[in-house]
Every structure is written in structure tokens, then in C-alpha cells.
Design goal:
about 90 residues, 5 helices
């Protein structure tokens, strides 16, 4: 993965964790589905969207399958960090 893209993805993960209160507010507004799985899904959705946006912005193209696999690897490595914040 392009180092600029990898750096941006890690920054977005850190940003998402620093703004975890937003995730809690979204989940709380939907009382009947406010589980940690739901919150984790919101974070993953935000990060997936950021990944695609950053590919287009930084690389000027859609991500390749290899880049997507590397994105999933980054998420996997930081999974416990994300879940701890929930």
C-alpha cells in the first residue's frame, strides 16, 4: 500500500477513536440497536468510506484488491484498540 495512504488510514482510525462520543450518540439515538456490534459497524463504515475517499484523493484512482486487503489487515491489527474504546 502506498505509504501516504497507509498513514491517512491510520490517522482516520485515530480520529475515529478520539471522537468515539459521536458513535455513542448515534447509537444512543437508536436505543433499540445500541450494541457494541452496532457501534463497531459504524466505525468500520466510516473507515471504509475514508479508505475509498483517500485512495481517490491521494492516488487519484480507486483502490486495488491488494490495497483493500492491506486496509483489512490494518483494521485487523487495530481491532482490539477500536473495541476497547467502545
Amino acid at each position: 500500500m502506498d505509504k501516504r495512504l497507509e498513514q491517512k488510514i491510520n490517522e482516520k482510525i485515530t480520529d475515529a477513536l478520539h471522537n468515539i462520543s459521536e458513535i455513542h450518540q448515534i447509537a444512543k439515538s437508536l436505543d433499540h440497536i445500541s450494541s457494541n456490534d452496532f457501534k463497531y459497524g459504524i466505525i468500520l463504515g466510516r473507515l471504509y468510506n475514508s479508505f475509498h475517499y483517500q485512495c481517490r484523493r491521494v492516488l487519484k484512482r480507486d483502490p486495488t484488491q491488494d490495497e483493500f486487503a492491506e486496509f483489512l489487515e490494518i483494521l485487523s491489527k487495530r481491532r482490539s484498540e477500536i473495541l476497547e474504546k467502545l
